[in-house]
Amino acid sequence: MANLIFHGAAGEVTGSMHLIEYKGRYIALDCGLFQGRRAQANEKNRNFPVHPSKIEAVILSHAHIDHSGRLPRLVKDGFRGTIYATPATHDLAAILLADSAHIQTEDAEFFNRKRRKNGEPEIEPLYSDEDAVRTMTHFLSVSYGRTLDIGGGIKIKFSDAGHILGSAIVEIEIPSEGNERPIKLLFSGDLGRHQMPILRDPTPMPQCDYLITESTYGARVHDNPVDMKEKLRDQIQMAVSRSGKVIIPSFSVGRTQTLIYYLHQLMHEGRLPAVPIFVDSPLSVDATHIFRAHPECYDTEARNMLNKMGDILGDGCCRFIHATEDSKKLNDFNKPCVIISASGMCEAGRILHHLANSVSDPKNTILIVGFQAMHTLGRRIVEREPEIKIFGRMYPLKAHIKTLNGFSSHADTVQFRSWFSGNGTTTKQTFIVHGEPEQQAGLVTLLNELNYKNVTIPKMGDTFPLN
Ligand SMILES: [Zn+2]
Fold first, then answer.
1. Does pLDDT of 418 surpass 90?
2. Which of 372, 403, 434 is where one domain is finished?
3. How far does the centroid of ligand 1 lie from the alpha carbon of residue 62, in Å?
4. Are residues 299 and 329 in the same domain?
5. Are residues 72 and 184 in the same domain?
6. Are residues 390 and 274 in the same domain?
7. Can you give the CATH number for the domain in which 176 is found?
8. How far apart are the first and last CA of the chain?
9. Is 242 in the same domain as 338?
10. 212 pLDDT above the threshold of 80
11. 349, 374, 401, 425: least CB-packed within 10 angstroms?
12. Angle at Cα 380 formed by Cα 378 and Cα 384, nearest 5°?
């Protein structure tokens, strides 16, 4: 008999990790980093539900750090198995885990400076750059649509989730004693949206016995992604007509490439003012290269554009800035331009320099294209606080602030309804993970309406039999 054990993303949105136990073997679905309150997250990130040496495989739904970010710690603590992922997830994980290791090392150093002053023992980073590199030797790429036996008769298959490049819905078949048919477990990973640019739409939900579904926006309705191209153009046009700059804080993987893709189209259509567009973040530049290397993930529109234009991701219309010296030069650039930089919530990275240079000039626009969590600088900008603190200095916030809400890469309640429909009566039990309580409650109502039975919101450590 098999069991399903919930560990991370149970009643919260980070630390995604669920375990299948079958005949004394353990297989993990995702191995994500817990984020949020530092001390609490730190404690959770150092503890696994079973000793890592007992886990023989990790099936990784996609490369986002809240799904992959604890893999180097798993390896550091004794994991010797295989990490299965799509080829694009494999490549994105390499840059995202290296970046995360860098953040972990800096974070530990920040604490250790204080601890050294107080005569306290130093803390060790969650993992190092070397651990992240070692983690990559455990990866095995599995293309979309291939069924792979990962040992003991357990089979896995990835299909399009439409969330970020390489993201997958995971189907798992577990042999069932006494039954002719294996048990089918379906893990939504993070479910994307229809009509998102570049990526193919999510695959319709396959039939299953057990479903684990995310619920990030289970009770919300998003704006249409297709309208975002025109709204982006309008904002650039308006800022340029004031001789101002447009500063866009953006997540490096996914959101930045969506922006570049729209800008590339607008530029080719001759519908953008002739101003320079800078993509100023090493991680964003690296991620864009990986997007270029994986046209197998593109939808028909992106493929057609690629055939027609030779590139769809800013070649010839965006200037990609990797080196620190080149980024510094941008500080003296005083003409109208568009600057896309990270981090997406303005908490760190080069965006801080661009904000410090721009927020006090009413000619400029700060364009918000992603979710801004409570207590972040991005949130204070969205809430138009009269003054904001950057690098310890106060700056009056006089620039235009505009928020575009249609860029989300998560399914909303309308898309969940269409994805779930038709499989209610055949699914034995559904587990709702990866969501805040209000969003999870929305999904419970929806699933009940669609005749799903045994809809469950698991807590960390809860175990359920699969039979
Ligand atoms: Zn994600």
1. yes
2. 403
3. 7
4. yes
5. yes
6. yes
7. 3.60.15.10
8. 7
9. yes
10. yes
11. 374
12. 115
Is residue 158 within 8 Å of 206, Cβ to Cβ? no
β-pair type (387-390, 319-321): unpaired
User: Given 403, 426, 457, which residue is the final one in a domain?
Assistant: 403
- Residue 177 is part of which domain span? 2-220+409-466
Integer Cα distance of 391 and 147 in angstroms: 51
261 and 387 both lie in a single domain? yes
Q: How far is the CA of 191 from the centre of ligand 1 (A)?
A: 8
- CB of 116 closer than 8 Å to CB of 122: yes
Distance 175 CA to ligand 1 centre (A): 29
CA of 205 to the centre of ligand 1 (A): 18
Q: How far is the CA of 192 from the centre of ligand 1 (A)?
A: 9
Q: pTM here?
A: 0.94
Closest by alpha carbon to 162, among 277, 323, 302? 302
**Paired sense of beta strands 147-149 and 139-141, if any:** unpaired
Q: Which amino acid is at 74?
A: L
Return the structure tokens found at 211: 């479903």
The 10s digit of each residue's pLDDT in 435-460 is 889 999 999 999 999 999 999 999 99
Interval between CA 365 and ligand 1 midpoint (Å): 28
The CATH number given to whatever domain includes residue 353 is: 3.40.50.10890
- Looking at the fold, whether 285 and 424 belong to one and the same domain comes out as no
334 and 459 in one domain? no
Whether the ω angle into residue 343 lies within 30 degrees of 0, i.e. cis, is yes
The answer to whether residue 404 scores a pLDDT higher than 80 is yes
Nearest to 339 by CA among 244, 254, 226: 244
Distance CA 200, CA 161 (A): 8
Residue 95, φ and ψ in degrees, nearest 5: -80, -35
- Tell me, in angstroms, the distance from the centre of ligand 1 to residue 261's CA: 20
Same domain, 254 and 143: no
How many domains is the chain partitioned into structurally?
A: 2
Q: How far is the CA of 391 from the centre of ligand 1 (A)?
A: 29
Q: Which one-letter DSSP state was computed for residue 61?
A: S
